Amino acid sequence: MDDRSENHDIEVERGNYACERKISGILDDGSVAFQQPLLARNRKNTTSQIAIVGANTCPIESLDYEIFENDLFKQDWRSRKKIEILQYTILKWALAFLIGLSTGVVGFLNNLAVENIAGFKLLLTGNLMLNQKYFQAFFAFAGSNLILATAAASLCAFIAPAAAGSGIPEVKAYLNGIDAYSILAPSTLFVKIFGSIFGVAAGFVVGKEGPMVHTGACIANLLGQGGSRKYKLTWKWLRFFKNDRDRRDLITCGAAAGVAAAFRAPVGGVLFALEEAVSWWRSALLWRTFFTTAVVAVVLRSLIELCRSGRCGLFGKGGLIMFDVNSGSVLYSTPDLLAVVFLGVVGGVLGSLYNYLVDKVLRTYAIINERGPGFKVMLVMAVSILSSCCAFGLPWLAHCTPCPTGTEGKCPSVGRDSIYKSFQCPPNHYNDLSSLLLNTNDDAIRSLFTSRSENEFQISTLATFFVLVYCLGIITYGIAIPSGLFIPVILAGASYGRLVGRLLGPVSQLDVGLFSLLGAASFLGGTMRMTVSLCVIILELTNNLLMLPLVMLVLLISKTVADCFNKGVYDQIVIMKGLPYMEDHAEPYMRNLVAKDVVAGPLLSFSRVEKVGVIWQALKMTSHNGFPVIDEPPFTEAAELCGIALRSHLLVLLQGKRFSKQKTTFGSQILRSCKARDFAKAGLGKGLKIEDLVISDEEMEMYVDLHPITNTSPYTVLETLSLAKAAILFRQLGLRHLCVVPKTPGRPPIVGILTRHDFMPEHVLGLYPHMDPLK
């Protein structure tokens, strides 16, 4: 486990704290004196504060998506001129344009590198096979794969462990309000790009589509950091984006741009972000996301046109997958619809089984990865050797197939994108299994979707390829390389669909290429559990609207069947990684509880004018992020809740040393000497820490007015509110803290604070195990 998980330098949510104790002062020996507990119970939240990000275990914290309305924020908004508001609007669209441009260029260069590296490897192997140098061909093939795999694993293990995996669960969790160390850091972006290139070119059964989503999100986060004081990039306009709310919108655009760059599917990218990635959506964000993906589409189109002249090496038609199935017949009858239903049902069953096995493999790999970077690299090397042996060895067991009529001069084919590979076969024959295994994943999918000949691939070949890809896809996902699930699932589904098409050929008039496409759709629906976005992505990939009814039908059936067994693959991975994800619905048992039943303690609160030493000691003793601020006599007639002060704001206030020797209100002086941008959130977790503060003993006895930095309009709920309603409110508003206030007068003004950890099943069912539906 990373040592940072034991360090309070990183701000970590500790759950909810019942209003039991209140710091009242500091004793002569520096210890903190507490008043008597306000409540009898001392309930603690024991949910995990760490999670797995990529292949790394690190602390997590929540994001501040709520608009923090304190006096400094209000002063800043009142002082903004119309020209500044216009600048802010223009800059939002400019950043959306830059995200689309950068993601499109990165996506194109990613594909260009993969196609050239993999193409050179396959050309070398093919030439050695033609010269009957079989052992040399194997060692060249397996050795190239091993070198590329080791390079990808080393980058992930030693530079950015957070870059391992697809990254979609991490992006989904971030957009839900969960942050973790280096989840979107520049080092993660670097490793995601180059690790994905090496991993895909190494012949693993992985895709670059999932990593492209993470890459787009990292690019958006980098552009939306609001500048850097370290590198003197602090342009005045960029300060507008030094908050989690605007960064969330930019990262949403980046995730959509990643899908658009991976599939050349701009509309599908928008719908993917809406259906799978984001937790909050609005119409203004829809426009900007659509604009970003449109920029990606234009950039890709322009760059691909440059490659048509042959100046891109071995790029050819590969890389940016576009499967043309227009030649297939889309006329169908009742038996065809029954065949499609069968595809959907079996695809849903196999997809749910795929998710189950992936979850088990990931949990096993997590144990291995905990042993250190060396074990991560060795695991990748082992999987690489296994994949190479299967890809090169299994074609020897396949029968040689005579070349189809009308393919004279083209079969067996020689070259980078050869369709009919001869392998060890005599003249005028080809090895259909090697044509699938000794090719890039994109070319293999294109071959399965295309219908040059119904008998192009034998039934035994399709069955062997399906079992191999299904198993390799499961054991490959989870190793320490950037790896996506889209391509393995499409490969397995396409081979399964074409196999069903061959078996049902006598009773169905649908083309085997269409069966392959529908099989891929059924597997995608069974694993991803998306419908609208997958449907549009498939249509944009194939450029054929006539298949819309069949694709919709098979997606709906496969998702419905798979939902009977388990959750979608990304939802399962989020749970497995320990990310406290807030669902858009409340669990049924929450309706039997109220808010006060789950608040934990003790809660530390401050007075409006508080002693510096009390604040410093509280920040040093705890890692809480939010502290209630209470107005008390003589400033008010009775104690009342003033609002919430954030830990980061308290640290900035203490660093500025705007103190007073008298216990009086002096917030107006702080407003004149401070600006809202002084309290803006630093990028990549580089904010102030309690260890950075230097406060003398004399200053410890002074006072500070907390009202200017206190959010005086926090969201509050009564202690008797249903926990289910509180959970829905918390999620839909994107909160980090939800104050629980008493229902009856004459009591302390706050009962506790709810954070996302208090809604987690581990916490709630830990307090009330009899409500566990599994018991």
UniProtKB/TrEMBL annotation:
The chain crosses the membrane at residues 90-114, 134-160, 181-206, 250-274, 280-300, 337-357, 377-398, 462-491, 503-524, 530-557. It is a multi-pass membrane protein. Keywords: CBS domain, Chloride, Chloride channel, Ion channel, Ion transport, Membrane, Repeat, Transmembrane, Transmembrane helix, Transport, Voltage-gated channel. Pfam families: CBS, Voltage_CLC. One of its GO terms (cellular component) is chloride channel complex. Residues 709-773 form the CBS domain. One of its GO terms (molecular function) is chloride channel activity. InterPro entries: CBS_dom, CBS_dom_sf, Cl-channel/antiporter, Cl-channel_core, Cl_channel_pln, ClC. It comes from the Eukaryota. It is found in: Membrane. The keyword Membrane applies. Belongs to the chloride channel (TC 2.A.49) family. This is Chloride channel protein.
